[in-house]
């Protein structure tokens, strides 16, 4: 068999002695995985990089500040030789060979009895790649596999039954590229996807034909509230053994009723994973060139729901207090009530000429921005026919960005 063919194996090093000679960049790269494997690590080196020193100080490795001596591998299961002293390396390598201890050498792979693969991890899978003589290629193959597992483009369904489960996935503001890698992978693994109107609907087109896509707005609710009907649909599909994703716009916990769904699932005894998403409250202003904070301009931003009019007794918002803030106000679900909200803010002291931007369908091809002030925003929104979904940004940060968006 070829000299370049290595037999792959997973070493279970927990509590077993591993000796590392040298404490430079190579050792620094290798040590974290040995520590994670629970190895009993003896590090022998007169000096060390700052990171390796920190590992020794944290008690993760035992460091002896000296050079290699014959006999250092007594009791070891595995050794790594990483010094730049060729004579010491050769002597150490000979000791490992004589003691039949597998030995990796960073200076001379040919002289070593073991090779370190390029490794990576994703969701409980360890990927280890060996190419013989081409470490860059090993790293590239490793990256491609790990990346594919993470984002679901490499289909590797789990075959051990996992029981019912639901993932509440934040899909981001609309652009399909703005979902998290974890969210995308869970979508790729789903049997059933319950989706809102908001969020990255384009992602649904990419799903394989066997995936059942349910429009949350169309779930019949009869004697239940719409939200209860959605909760029940999630529970029923999960109990039927399906892998269920509840895909929501933005972040599930920002005006997204995510907690209501998580609670209903918990009550039904169904495990639920929550995957955060990029909230429209930050990303939609950003997509229109508006930072929600800026040094010397705004030291705070406050996200408020505008779905209830300020004078409505059911409102939980202290608009008078918000009017006194100097920073940025971001309003969601406020298109309908923006005139009344702006008037209330002005009545409580916020300057009538405070700049306002309304960004409709942010991050999608239909994105548009309408600029105004607190005095004019009610009229402008009506005149321009702005429709939900839109984010309203109020404050001096609006003036920082160029106005050529609308
Ligand atoms: C029920 S809330 C859900 C918010 C969502 N969970 C989030 O974190 O972005 C819906 C509101 O979010 C805002 N919104 C969501 N996506 C948007 C987008 N692409 N462009 C503008 N506003 C958006 C609008 O104010 C909309 O009325």
UniProtKB/TrEMBL annotation:
Family per similarity comment: Belongs to the precorrin methyltransferase family.
Reaction it catalyzes: precorrin-2 + NAD(+) = sirohydrochlorin + NADH + 2 H(+)
Keywords: Cobalamin biosynthesis, Lyase, Methyltransferase, Multifunctional enzyme, NAD, Oxidoreductase, Porphyrin biosynthesis, S-adenosyl-L-methionine, Transferase
Family matches, as InterPro entries: 4pyrrol_Mease, 4pyrrol_Methylase_sf, 4pyrrole_Mease_sub1, 4pyrrole_Mease_sub2, CobA/CysG_C, NAD(P)-bd_dom_sf, Siro_Cobalamin_biosynth, Sirohaem_synth
Pathway as given in its UniProt record: Porphyrin-containing compound metabolism; siroheme biosynthesis; sirohydrochlorin from precorrin-2: step 1/1
Cited CDD domains: SUMT
Keyword Metal-binding: no
Classification lineage: Bacteria, Bacillati, Actinomycetota, Actinomycetes, Kitasatosporales
Molecular function as annotated in GO: uroporphyrin-III C-methyltransferase activity
Organism per entry: Streptomyces luomodiensis
PANTHER family (alphabetical): S-ADENOSYL-L-METHIONINE-DEPENDENT UROPORPHYRINOGEN III METHYLTRANSFERASE, CHLOROPLASTIC (PTHR45790:SF3), SIROHEME SYNTHASE-RELATED (PTHR45790)
Pfam families: NAD_binding_7, TP_methylase
GO biological process, one term: methylation
Taxonomic superkingdom: Bacteria
Protein name (Swiss-Prot/TrEMBL): Uroporphyrinogen-III C-methyltransferase
Signal peptide extent: none
EC number per UniProt: 2.1.1.107
Domain Tetrapyrrole methylase residue range list: 166-377
């Amino acid at each position: 068999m070829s000299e370049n063919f290595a037999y792959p194996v997973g070493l279970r090093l927990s509590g077993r002695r591993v000796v590392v000679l040298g404490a430079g960049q190579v050792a620094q790269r290798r040590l974290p995985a040995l520590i994670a494997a629970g190895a009993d690590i003896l590090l022998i080196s007169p000096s060390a990089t700052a990171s390796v020193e920190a590992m020794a100080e944290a008690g993760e490795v035992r460091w002896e500040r000296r050079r290699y001596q014959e006999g250092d591998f007594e009791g070891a299961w595995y050794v790594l030789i990483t010094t730049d002293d060729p004579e010491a390396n050769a002597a150490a390598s000979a000791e490992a060979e004589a003691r039949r201890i597998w030995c990796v050498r960073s200076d001379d792979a040919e002289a070593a009895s073991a090779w370190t693969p390029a490794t990576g991890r994703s969701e409980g899978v360890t990927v280890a790649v060996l190419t013989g003589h081409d470490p860059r290629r090993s790293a590239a193959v490793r990256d491609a596999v790990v990346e594919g597992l993470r984002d679901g483009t490499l289909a590797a369904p789990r075959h051990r039954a996992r029981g019912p489960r639901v993932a509440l996935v934040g899909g981001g503001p609309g652009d399909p590229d703005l979902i998290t890698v974890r969210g995308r992978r869970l979508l790729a693994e789903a049997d059933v996807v319950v989706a809102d109107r908001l969020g990255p609907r384009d992602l649904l087109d990419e799903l394989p034909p066997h995936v059942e896509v349910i429009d949350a707005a169309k779930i019949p609710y009869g004697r239940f509230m719409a939200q209860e009907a959605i909760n029940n649909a999630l529970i029923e599909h999960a109990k039927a053994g399906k892998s269920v994703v509840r895909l929501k716009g933005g972040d599930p916990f920002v005006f997204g009723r995510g907690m209501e769904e998580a609670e209903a699932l918990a009550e039904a005894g169904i495990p639920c994973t929550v995957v955060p998403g990029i909230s429209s409250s930050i990303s939609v202003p950003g997509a229109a060139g508006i930072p929600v904070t800026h040094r010397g301009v705004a030291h705070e931003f406050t996200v408020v729901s505008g779905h209830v009019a300020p004078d409505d007794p059911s409102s939980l918002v202290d608009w008078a207090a918000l009017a006194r803030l100097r920073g940025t106000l971001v309003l969601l679900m406020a298109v309908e009530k923006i005139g009344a909200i702006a008037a209330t803010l002005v009545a409580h002291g916020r300057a009538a000429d405070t700049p306002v931007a309304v960004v409709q369908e942010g991050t999608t091809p239909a994105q548009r921005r309408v600029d105004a002030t607190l005095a004019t925003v009610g009229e402008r929104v009506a005149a321009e026919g702005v429709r939900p979904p839109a984010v309203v940004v109020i404050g001096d940060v609006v003036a920082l960005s160029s106005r050529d968006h609308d």
